[in-house]
Design a protein that fits this description.
24% strand; alpha+beta
C-alpha cells in the first residue's frame, strides 16, 4: 500500500517495481505472486491507514509493503506521521497475522525526518526496512537519469527498486526465515492509541450548493477530511472551535480523492468545524469528515 511511488507511477506497466519483483520471484524462485494494491497518488500515510480499514481482499497475505513518506513531508508533523504509521503497522499485523511487513523508504525523500521514524518503528516492531535511496546511491547515477519527473522513478529507477527489494527479501530469508513482527508491546507514539477506528461522515452539502462557508459539529480526538480534488478546485480555510488551523486546496490536475489529517490533539469532546472558502469564485467538494 502506498502513494504514487507505491503504485509505480512513472514507469511502463512491465517496469513497475511490483511487477518486476513478481516476475523475478517466479523465474528465480518458482514463486507465483499476486499483488494487491491499496494506493492513491499524492497520498499520505493517513490516507493509507483509512483505506486499509475499508478494504478487504478476502484472502490472507504473505508480504505487505508500506510505501509512504514523500507526500507526508510538510503536510504531517513528525509525531502525526509516527503515530499513524505505527497504527498502520499494528493493524496490518493484526489482520494478516502471518505476513512479513516491509517498510519502504522512498528514493525521492531527501531529508531524514520521515526515514528516521520509519526505521525507528521498524526496529521496534521487527519489520524490514527497505531504504531504496541506498540502491540509487550505489548505482552511481544521477537521480534525474533514474527519474521520470525528478520524484517518481522511471523504468530504470524501478528496476533498482525491484532488484533491491528482491535482494533484501532473500537476505532476510537467509538470516531468519521466521516472521518475527511483534505488535504485542506498548506503543511508541502516545497518539497512536487514538487511531483505532475511522468513520467517514457525509457533510458540507451547503458548500456543494454554492455556500461560502459551513459549520458542523463532531466528536473525537482527531479530525480528517475526505477531499474530492479536481481542476476547478480552490483553497479553503479550516477553523476548529473558532481557531484557524490551516489552509488546504482542493485543486488537482485530474480528479482524485485524498483523505487528509487535519489535527489530532483535540480533547475527546464535541467540537465545531468551520470551512471558509478562500476564493469566492471557486467551489470545493468535500466528501466528508473522518473521525473516531
Amino acid at each position: 500500500m502506498g502513494d504514487s511511488i507505491g503504485q509505480g507511477d512513472g514507469a511502463e506497466t512491465e517496469f513497475k517495481w511490483f511487477n518486476q519483483l513478481s516476475k523475478k520471484l517466479e523465474t528465480t524462485n518458482g514463486v507465483m505472486s499476486f499483488p494487491y494494491k491499496i494506493t492513491t497518488p499524492g497520498s499520505t500515510v493517513f490516507n493509507g491507514w483509512f483505506d486499509f480499514q475499508n478494504k478487504d481482499f478476502n484472502r490472507d497475505m504473505d508480504l505487505v509493503f508500506i510505501s509512504f513518506g514523500q507526500n507526508d513531508q510538510g503536510i504531517m508533523s513528525e509525531n502525526q506521521f509516527g503515530a499513524v504509521y505505527e497504527s498502520l503497522i499494528r493493524k496490518v499485523k493484526s489482520k494478516y497475522k502471518h505476513a512479513e511487513i516491509y517498510t519502504i523508504i522512498e528514493s525521492s525523500i531527501q531529508t531524514e525526518k520521515m526515514p528516521r521514524i520509519i526505521k525507528e518503528l521498524s526496529d521496534y516492531y521487527g519489520t524490514t526496512v527497505i531504504d531504496t535511496r541506498i540502491a540509487f546511491k550505489e548505482s552511481n547515477k544521477d537521480y534525474k537519469n533514474l527519474s521520470f519527473d525528478g520524484t517518481h522513478p522511471n523504468n530504470d529507477g524501478y528496476t533498482l527498486y525491484s532488484n533491491y527489494i528482491y535482494n533484501q527479501i532473500m537476505k532476510k530469508l537467509s538470516l531468519n526465515p521466521v516472521v518475527n513482527v511483534d505488535i504485542n508491546k506498548n506503543i511508541l507514539y502516545s497518539n497512536s492509541s487514538i487511531y483505532q477506528e475511522a468513520k467517514l461522515t457525509s457533510a458540507f452539502e451547503e458548500l456543494k450548493e454554492g455556500a461560502k462557508s459551513s459549520k458542523i459539529r463532531f466528536n473525537g480526538s482527531y479530525l480528517g477530511l475526505s477531499i474530492n480534488k479536481n481542476a476547478s478546485g480552490g483553497k479553503f480555510r479550516i477553523y476548529i472551535d473558532g481557531k484557524f488551523i490551516k489552509e488546504l486546496s482542493s485543486y488537482n490536475k485530474f480528479p482524485i480523492t485524498h483523505k487528509v489529517l487535519i489535527i489530532d490533539e483535540l480533547s475527546d469532546t464535541e467540537h465545531i468545524l468551520e470551512i471558509r472558502l478562500s476564493d469566492s469564485n471557486k467551489k470545493i467538494d468535500l466528501k466528508g469528515m473522518i473521525t473516531e
